[in-house]
Amino acid sequence: MSFNEALTYLYTIAPPFHQVGAAAYKPGLHTMQQLMDALGWQQSFPVVHVAGTNGKGSTSHLIASALAAAGYKVGLYTSPHLVSFCERVRVIERRRSCHDNPGEVGFSLIPETFVARFVEDHQSLFAELQPSFFEITTAMAFCWLTEQKVDIAVIEVGLGGLLDATNIVTPVLSVITNIGMDHTDLLGHSLAEIATQKAGIIKPGVPCVIGETHPQTAPVFLSRAEECGILGDGLETTGCRLWFADQCEFLRRQRLRLAPDCELRGDYQQRNLQTAYVALQVLRTHSQLSTSLPFERGVGGVSLNSPAIAEGFANVVTYTGLRGRWETLCNSPLTICDTGHNSHGVATYVEQLRRIDKRKHIIFGMVADKDIDNVLRLLPAEATYYFTQPASHRAFPAVQLLAKWLAIHPDSTAQAFGSVAEALAPAQAAAQPEDLIFIGGSNYVVGEAIQRMNN
């Protein structure tokens, strides 16, 4: 079985979420646990488990990059991918040439050969258990990271938390970045209901970092932490186990701006940097990891100190291969893309977009299960719009997106295009070298644009 045949097989027996939406979602851990038991898998590496509405991908990559800079061999599992399926699973490590030369940090994606072999070897098991696409992908990731003998893995939740396939792990640290209104048909119709699902990754005896404090969600996290016996009141307090990153006293005292030279240029990344920084401090001082893996090994070894964290943060894109977060794809005309795809996510970058004093060309497309009307109201009116749609069954038709936009801004200059490629060409033709092209609204729109511009 080839790699392409393996993916075709998976897409046929278990269509993924990015193709069919909620129909792909199989809540509950029973099938996932059966699958891992049948594979004979037992967790052999510490895990940092990351959930949240937005920012969990960036935060996961920041944590992984800092750990790799410190000398750890780090596994990273995230979703969805932008261009290649193999982006979902990677190993990040410092490749040493000798003891005195620590070498450069780099990443390796899960090999296509492993994907093909894993699918081919377990077709009968998939037929028996009928796991979802995400459950199969998660099982594949865990098995490959075990084979790679990683020191630690950063695992991003797929959807929600409590009933997500990744929640079979026992982490050394749980991280919840923030809560916004997304996937309301599956997770709940209020911030508190969604927070309850995310809080499902909080476990007894495991410290947890919450990225952002919100009056509707903080009580949910505090209640869950109390149930798990991990309630605490500050990073410096011996034995405390729950932290709100934006409330940490030591951050306020230091008044630090984290990683000013970080490769992630979006203004909103300061919140993710703060969350990742507190998470790493908790790892170093309070989690089981501080006893299961040494943090100080001397020259050429592991030292999760401030220089290592700063190095990891500054080079997160280079070290991990993260893409699509306020990423510059071209300098003339300036072309930026961002994967923010719901009102909570779009709101994090729209002010930065407004501040760019250039004539704007905006290529924008969404999937149908998002809060489209609220997102459109956030976008700047002073721009030329090229509404489009990704190559997905979930895509919201570009002509309908255009109609919604014109209902809000009837005098706007805007057109609809049936594909990302069809929207990109006229935008590039119309834009002057001093203009701005922005691409956003969906992971899939950004992924298609990156692939098109890379070719």
Which helices and strands appear, and what pairs or packs with what?
Blueprint: H1 3-13, H2 17-20, H3 30-38, E1 47-51, H4 56-69, E2 74-77, E3 89-94, E4 105-109, H5 112-121, H6 123-129, H7 133-147, E5 152-156, E6 173-176, H8 184-187, H9 191-198, E7 208-210, H10 218-227, E8 242-244, H11 249-254, H12 269-285, H13 289-292, H14 306-314, H15 316-320, E9 327-331, E10 334-337, H16 343-355, E11 360-364, H17 372-378, E12 384-387, H18 398-408, E13 413-416, H19 420-430, E14 436-440, H20 443-454
Parallel strand pairs: 1-5, 1-6, 2-5, 6-7, 7-8, 10-14, 11-12, 11-14, 12-13
Antiparallel strand pairs: 2-3, 3-4, 9-10
Describe the structure.
The structure is a single chain. The chain is α/β, with parallel strands linked by helices and 455 residues long. It has 20 helices and 14 strands. It has helices spanning 3-13, 17-20, 30-38, 56-69, 112-121, 123-129, 133-147, 184-187, 191-198, 218-227, 249-254, 269-285, 289-292, 306-314, 316-320, 343-355, 372-378, 398-408, 420-430, 443-454, and strands at residues 47-51, 74-77, 89-94, 105-109, 152-156, 173-176, 208-210, 242-244, 327-331, 334-337, 360-364, 384-387, 413-416, 436-440. It has an 8-stranded mixed beta sheet, sandwiched between helices. Strands 9-10-14-11-12-13 form a 6-stranded mixed beta sheet. The longest helix has 17 residues, at 269-285. The radius of gyration is 22 Å and the shape is globular.
